[in-house]
Amino acid sequence: MKRGYFYSRKLHSLLGVMPLGFFIIEHMLTNYAAYEGGKEAFQGSVKFLNDLPLVFFLELFGIWLPLLYHGVYGLYIAYTSRNNVGNYNYGRNVAFMMQRITGVITFVFVIWHLYQTRFQVAIGNISHEELGTHMNEIVTQPAMFILYVIGVVAASYHFTNGLWAFLVSWGITIGPRAQKVSSVICTGLFVVMSVLFVMSLFAFRGTEFEAAHVWNAAQSMIG
Hints:
223 residues; mainly alpha; 81% helix
């Protein structure tokens, strides 16, 4: 039982960095294209990803199955873990608690986001080319925008703090100095990822991503 638990935790940790870590970074860069280059750049990034060979199997084995295992097992860890923040209120213990909280938030947010986007594409309600416009319709709602900000910041924290824990648990950062340096690097990565994600959300709120009929109606009212 202990050996099975050990290997389950190791696999959970590994999947959180590879491949799910690559997925969240790729998702960040794809969305940031909306801020950097506007609608055309975002659509180009989406098209590039969907034109990859064997994209279905890449997503199945590189995203969906790892996400299912990491998310469900992570919920189990969050439910069974004991937080000692009340007794030992110091940085690492707080980070331990926040890792569990952001894990739950991230899992719910990702499932919800996938339902709003990829699932809608899969059932034919929208096309890949309409994802930018669809995101505009979502994040221009104030409540949705706030929830998305919370979701992307939680996901960024969960990944970067999990990366720090991964480096420790896999024996990559050994000793206080190495762990302190990796903590600074991971904190910096968290800030960068959060900023880029939020900037992307603001980009999706721009008029460039509005549906054509909405933009035309607004122009008529102004005229």
